[in-house]
Design goal:
4 strands; two-stranded antiparallel sheet; alpha+beta; 160 residues; globular; 2 domains
Length: 160
């Protein structure tokens, strides 16, 4: 976060409070929220749950471009993403594609898995003998991830 209250990645710059208030963005303060005002840890948790669980409807609803991939994924991962259920992809609010190739048979833990897109990618990469666990604090996002998991693994990936 810069001193001006803006975030950037790949040359994109967006105010952190954009769309969140009618007031102009305030300068960030140490140990406070982005737009000023002290926040407790619980305030932050509740704000994250509300934003990712209720405010956002699709990735087009994001108020910042700070968390985007700066390069195209490997062709194998791009092909996997194309086969992931549309709802899972449309509610993906993460950063890029952190899952590496060459993880067949391994166990993967995705903290902050959201709609599960990276879990779906990892499931294809670990194979039937691997295991993927996604953890998120947003029940709405977990509902999306769970809604398609069985059909994806059995139908798309052919796992038993």
């Amino acid at each position: 976060m810069s001193k001006t209250g803006k975030e950037s990645c790949c040359g994109a710059t967006t105010a952190c409070c954009e769309g969140g208030t009618d007031a102009p963005p305030a300068e960030p303060k140490a140990a406070s929220g982005c737009c000023g005002g002290a926040q407790t840890d619980q305030d932050v948790v509740e704000g994250v749950k509300e934003y990712y669980g209720q405010t956002l409807k699709t990735s087009e609803s994001l108020k910042t471009s700070a968390c985007t991939a700066c390069e195209r994924p490997h062709d194998k991962i791009a092909r996997i993403i194309e086969k992931i259920p549309k709802e899972v992809n449309s509610k993906f609010y993460g950063c890029g594609f952190p899952t590496p190739l060459g993880i067949e048979g391994m166990r993967v833990l995705d903290l902050g898995c959201g709609s599960g897109r990276d879990c779906y990618i990892a499931s294809a990469l670990v194979g039937e003998q691997g295991r993927v666990i996604g953890v998120d604090m947003t029940k709405e996002q977990l509902a999306v991830a769970r809604a398609h998991a069985k059909e994806y693994c059995t139908g798309e990936l052919g796992y038993r």
